[in-house]
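The records we work with from here on pair a chain with its fold. Taken together, the C-alpha cells spell out the fold as the letters spell out the chain. To see the layout at work, look at the sequence and C-alpha cells printed below.
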Amino acid sequence: MSAILSAQDLNDFIGPGLACINPVVVNRSDTNRPTEIQIDASGNPVEVSIDDGSSNATAKTATQLTPAQINLSDCLACSGCITSAESVLVSLQSHTELLSVLRQSRGHRVPKDVNDMEIMKPKRVFVASISHQSRASLAAAFNISVDAVDAKLVTLFRDVLDFQYFVGTGVGRQVSLAYSAQEVLLNAGKLADINSLSVEHKRPVLASICPGWICYVEKTHPHVLPYLSAIKSPQQITGSLLKRLISEEANVSADDIYHVSVMPCFDKKLEASRPDFATGEGVRDVDCVITTKEVVQLLLDEHIDFMSISEAQDARMGNFQAMAPKLWPTEKSWESSEGSSSGGYLWHVLAALGDEIAKVECKTTNLKVIPGKNSDMVEYHLVTVDGNKEEVVAKAAQVYGFRNIQNLVRKLKTGSKTGPRSVVTARAKKSTGAAIATLSPTEYDYVEVMACPGGCINGGGQIGAPTSDGDAVGLKEWRDMVENKYKSMRSSVVERRAVQEWAATVWGSDIDSLVTTSYRAVERLDAKDAVPAVLVGDKW
C-alpha cells in the first residue's frame, strides 16, 4: 500500500485475491533454456539460465529482472483483486504525479521562432474539482468552517499551485441526481412519456457511483449487473462538463486540459481510469484523482502550512465565479444536497417519486424510516394515507459496508421475497418492540449502495482521527465531527427539470453520452496464472 494508506485504515473491505496477472509475464530471449529465479547478493531478482545444460554453478549466467509495472487500467481488467485497489502500487494517480506535471508545465519554454514547432504546444490548462466530503474532512481536521476551507483552497490552487479553474462537484452531483431520479421513475413506469434516457433495468435500481462496489460486482457477482444504475458519478460528469466548457472558452483542445479531482476514496482513481471515461483519442474526463489525505501529504511535501494560507476574499464572500468557466452555475457548484452524506441519492429518488404521485394521483406521501440490524442498513417506505389505511407505494434501502453488501447480492441471486408490496417488511425487535427492517431487495425500487461503512463521508481516503496525546478522538466521535461539518454546508433541492435543461443546453442532444455508462463482467482469472499476494506488515 501507499505510505498514505495502511491496512489499519480499512475496517470493512474484501482483501486482494491471491492473483495478479501482470507479474507472470516473463520475456525470455531463449525459452528453450532451463531457467530459475534467484535473489542476488544485493537483493535484486535475477533470472539464471544454464548455458551448457549442466548443474555446474559456473555455467550459469544471470540477468537482472525489471520490476513488474501495474497501472490502474490493469487492475480494472484483472479479476485477481476485488475492491482493494488501494493495495496496488499505482503511479499515475497520485499527488506526486500531480506535482511532477505541474513542474513540467512551469518549465514550458517560449518558442525561439516559428519553426520551433516542438515547443509551440500550448501550455496546459489546470483545473481542479473537489467533493463535498473532502471539504468536510479538511474542515474537521483543521477545526475550521467549511467556508474557511473553501477560501483557503482557492488560494492554494489559484495562487500557489497555479491552477486556472477550481470548482466544487455540486453541479456534477445535481446532474447525476436529476438523471438518477428520472432513471428510477422510468423504471417504475411513472414517466412513460419521457424517453430521453435509453436505459432499462431489473428492479431494484442499485446506485453505481461507488467504484469499489462496482469492481466487486464486475469481478465476482455478474448476476447483479442488470440492476446497476447507468448514471455516471458526479466526478465523471463534472470532468466531462469542465473539459467541454473550458475547451470552448479557452480555445484549447481537451487534451491540453489537466483535470484533478479531490475525492474521499482511493477507488475513485480506478473509476477515472475506466476506458469508458475517455475519448477515442485517449482524453480522459479526469486525468488525476487525489484523496483528501493526499492533499495533506502534498502540503507537507511542499512545506505549506495550510492554516497560514490566506483566505481568498472573493471566495470568503461566496463568490467563486472567477475560478469557474463562464457558463458554470457557480452557486450550485459549492452547495450540498438533501439526504445522506454519500450524495443523497436515495432521498432524491424518493422525493421525485413522491412528487410524481402527488402530481398524477393527487395523493400526499409520507416517508417512514425503519432501521436495520445495524446503522449501515436502513429501509425507507414511501406511503400514502387514506383515512386509517396506509399503502406503501415505494420502498428503498441504504446499504453500506461489505457485510451488508454480501447479504444484498446473495438475496438478489436467490430472489428473496418477503411479502406483498403494501405490507411493511419488518420484524419486531424483542427488547423494545420497535420494527427492524429485513433486507428484501426484490421489494425495493432503489438501493443506495456504498462500499465503506458510514458511506462516502467515511471513505478510505479521508483524513483519520487525531491520535496524539491530548488530541486523540474516538473513531465514532470523529466520524460524527466530519458528518456535522458536511451538514453545515449550504444545501439546495435539486430542480430536476431545470438541471436537465441546463445540461442539455451545455452538452447538446446526445445527453446519454454525458450522463450514462455501462458495466460488464470481468473474466475470471485462471488459477494457474495466479501469483500470491502476501501481506507483510502493511504492504502486499
The first helix runs from residue 72 to 77. The mean pLDDT is 80. The two ends are 7 Å apart (CA to CA). Residues 130 and 262 are 5 Å apart (CA to CA).
